[in-house]
Amino acid sequence: MKFTGSGIVIEKFAGRGSLTMNRDFGFIDRVSDFIVSGEKVFIFLSGLFISFAMFVQVLLRYVFSAPLFGIEEISVLVVSWFYFIGSSYCVHDKSDIKVDILFLFVKSPRIRMNCHKFSLVVSMITAGILFYYTLHYALWMAEAHVTTPTFMISQNVGFFAIVVGSALMIFHLFNQLLKEFK
Length: 182
Fold this sequence. Notes:
mainly alpha; three-stranded antiparallel beta sheet; 69% helix
């Protein structure tokens, strides 16, 4: 028997005779898949651009003694986006850096699961603090018209990567936390 209503799926397993509840995360999963697809494409394209720009700069500077003007400035802006979109993808992929020393001492699976949930909440709070302060700083930079020295591009182009990256990290952490309570 399967009943789907208001985001809850109730199934009765044959032979067990008990009902279990699994939350249906269809919409959140579709949004997450869309975001992750965009992150993958962006990481690939920006990594390709960074590699190509560095190759061209090294070739022009050291082989032809004619460096390309301003490529470092543009590369730094792209690299900042590459790092923070990449870090949000790592959070989604669960390949971010963790310190799991506690799990060496705790043997109970229930306590381990609760510690993992707690670490997700702490990570969300940390990403939220990063989001809050970088958003305020980015707004201040927009009012102050802080620009890059060569092309006079707004510094927010690179700095806003921290805001977007931390927001995506919060989304991915929240999605993981929801699935832990599944």
